[in-house]
Specification:
Layout (H helix, E strand, L loop, with lengths): L2 E2 L1 H10 L4 E3 L6 E4 L5 H7 L8 E3 L3 H4 L7 H14 L4 E6 L15 E5 L4 H10 L2 E5 L11 H7 L5 E2 L1 H4 L11 E5 L4 E5 L8
Helix pairs in contact: 1-5
Length: about 200
């Protein structure tokens, strides 16, 4: 595809016709409108048993996608207040608002994250929540540069270099993934953040 301005990338994502890529506080993301999740599975040759993560600019934008008791919601909000924006993905019970294609093997849960990166937040504020994953073919290491992403995914919209000059350094570590079991957090992947349960 092509390197585009941030405004064009946002419009491409909103249209649902394009996968877009942007930097986060961990590894670069591939992202698409949640109802077009199948585009990412096809591009990555990703098996359906690896769900996508719903990323947004704020926790408030993500709460409609989960369901839990009032007590659960208070606990989740406390964790979010401590760690978001940041490299922590929370796997929570999904509401009916989550497209089944995001997690077709287990549509009862959804992974959520608010990244701590100014470009990602600027894009997500405009697009609303996007279905995301790391930029790589399934089973391969995450790609870390726009050139690598363009070479492997020529159909993906990436940002022109001038839009990337923020001086924000990303961690090459992926996010920590913690799943709510109904009574406690279970760490599914230890990443950049140590979650104190």
């Amino acid at each position: 595809m092509a390197q585009v301005s941030i405004d064009s990338l946002i419009q491409g994502a909103i249209s649902g016709d394009y996968i877009v890529s942007f930097p986060t506080d961990t590894v670069p993301a591939l992202a698409v409108r949640p109802d077009r999740s199948e585009l990412i599975f096809a591009a990555k040759r990703r098996s359906q048993d690896k769900p996508l993560i719903l990323m947004a600019a704020s926790a408030r934008a993500l709460w409609p996608y989960v369901q839990g008791s009032p007590v659960d919601l208070i606990l989740w909000q406390q964790v979010v207040a401590s760690y978001w924006p940041g490299a922590l993905t929370l796997v929570l019970p999904a509401s009916a608002k989550v497209p089944a294609a995001m997690n077709s093997i287990d549509p009862s849960t959804i992974g959520l994250r608010v990244p701590n990166h100014p470009i990602a937040l600027k894009i997500l504020e405009q697009t609303g929540p996007l279905a995301t994953t790391s930029a790589n073919l399934s089973g391969q290491p995450p790609l870390e540069s726009v050139a690598e992403i363009e070479a492997q995914f020529p159909e993906v919209l990436t940002l022109v270099p001038s839009e990337l000059a923020t001086g924000t350094t990303a961690s090459s570590l992926p996010s920590t993934v913690a799943k709510w079991t109904g009574s406690e957090w279970k760490i599914l992947r230890q990443g950049a953040i140590e979650l104190e349960c």
